[in-house]
Write a structure and sequence with these properties.
Length: about 120
């Protein structure tokens, strides 16, 4: 049986392994996703400059009651896509943060794709 520490260490190792290959630029930033028990966070990162271009999370106003479920994740995906399109960013590289592409992570990605992001 996996303990919480083992799972978090495994996720961190997966994330570091993936980060060696995924790199965001100003024209095609990295869509980084983090999932906690209460909220889900997404940000577009330019790794060349080391800056966050756009960010969205379920802890912002207007997410009462949907912060930790699939509906909230889909809304965060749509919100980050809208903010990115306002800044003229259409293509991104998806970084699932070591999490399995399932559930809330998958819903966030689908919401971002529906709203117009290309990855």
């Amino acid at each position: 049986m996996f303990k919480k520490n083992d799972r978090s260490q495994s996720r961190t190792r997966r994330h570091m392994r993936v980060r060696k290959k995924i790199f965001g630029t100003g024209e095609r930033p990295r869509l980084s996703v983090y999932r906690s028990e209460k909220h889900i966070y997404a940000q577009l990162i330019d790794d060349v400059e080391g800056k966050t271009l756009v960010a969205a999370s379920s802890s912002e106003k207007g997410f009462d009651g949907v912060g930790s479920n699939k509906e909230g994740a889909k809304l965060v995906g749509k919100m980050i896509a809208e903010k990115a399109l306002e800044k003229g960013l259409k293509k991104v590289v998806f970084d699932r943060g070591g999490f399995i592409y399932h559930g809330r992570i998958k819903e966030l990605a689908e919401g971002a794709r529906e709203a117009g992001l290309d990855f």
